[in-house]
Design a protein that fits this description.
about 0% strand, Uncharacterised_Rv0898c, DUF2630 family protein
Length: about 80
């Protein structure tokens, strides 16, 4: 994925997150349904941001950003902040 594709996907995921929260408030889904989907969205967002950071870092050091690759969710989710 190119940077613009990653950013588009991030925007789509954020839009879906907002929609889920609105649907919860409107009573269109249960809090459990919302929570489960939000958890999945957060993992996907973390992976997208990680891939984008990898691409930018490669570019910053003169490497080809296309060699960046998505990491597994369990790896990304367990990074120490």
């Amino acid at each position: 994925m190119k940077d613009d594709e990653i950013l588009k996907r991030i925007s789509e995921l954020v839009d879906e997150e907002h929609s889920l929260r609105e649907r919860l408030v409107a009573g269109e889904l249960t809090s459990e349904e919302e929570h489960n989907r939000i958890s999945s969205l957060e993992e996907q967002l973390d992976r997208c941001w990680d891939l984008l950071r990898q691409r930018r870092a490669r570019r910053d050091v003169g490497e080809d950003p296309d060699f960046a690759s998505p990491r597994p969710a369990d790896e990304v989710e367990n990074y120490m902040q």
